[in-house]
Specification:
Helix content: 40-55%
CATH topology of the largest domain: Rossmann fold
CATH superfamily of the largest domain: P-loop containing nucleotide triphosphate hydrolases
CATH class of the largest domain: Alpha Beta
Structural class: alpha/beta
CATH architecture of the largest domain: 3-Layer(aba) Sandwich
Number of domains: 2
Strand content: 5-15%
Order of helices and strands: EEEHEHHEHEHHHHEHHEHHHEH
Radius of gyration: 20 Å
Number of helices: 14
Length: 297
Amino acid sequence: MSTDTNGDHIEGGPNSKLLPTFLIIGAPKAGTTSLYQYLRGHPDVFMSLVKEPNYFSKGVPMGEGLETYSRLFAGADGASAIGEASPSYAAFPTCGDVPARIAQVLPEVRLVYLVRHPIERMRSQYVMEVALGKKTCSIEEALLGDRRYLDFSRYAFQIQQYLPHFSRGQMLIVTSETLRDERRGTLHRVCEFLDLKADCWSSAVNEQFNESSSKGRPNVLNRTMRPVRRNPAYRAVASKAPRFVKSLNRRLMIRGIDPRTTAVPERLRRHLEALLRDDVRELHAFLGDDFDGWALT
């Protein structure tokens, strides 16, 4: 028997709370949505209905109990693997103590960590935050002024937070580039890691999800409609709208982002490469000689 971070007991046996056997821990903007969707289409996998529960990074500090978290996995009976995907689990130090919290509740869990070219990941995060209206400054001001961008791209640094709590064998590190370009082979590796059959996939495996290039900036209509969209009645009606209506609504609400304003200037790129080089070298030790280090070393 173990105890969760709020003191709830987790009993063994048929009446146990259903909890994850694996977690996709990040990195933010590195393909976690795609991997979540691919695994969701595997017949032997149950993924949480909420893609990013953030329980160990945000729920626990807010006092949410394990009972609330376990409800996300109701219906997982019979699944060979149960998982969720929360990129905030590899967002140290913004989200601290996450590995210790996970280890206390799920000591045998397997961890899948997606990593991406660190500067492209930073740029993608900036595009997303501009699209959400969270950033209005230039990309140079954002990437140099907000430490989160660099920290979330220091992958070896994030891995080191887990090693005091989990064995190296409990973590699989996957590059988003191989997930994109060598998808079937990469998913085969993920399945082997999770003890799953590797040849059972839905048509979703052929899709790319949540691409930053499709992002846009909220326009005036979008900002005006925000209070309306929060109304439960509006959400109930909107959820039943035909797909073409939802697509039209998104186009009306979003103003495109000029890609020239989100390009990383060469001088800034060279500066970031220098800051990231040591971390990429450390990551190479985890991934081995097949890892090219994105030509940053």
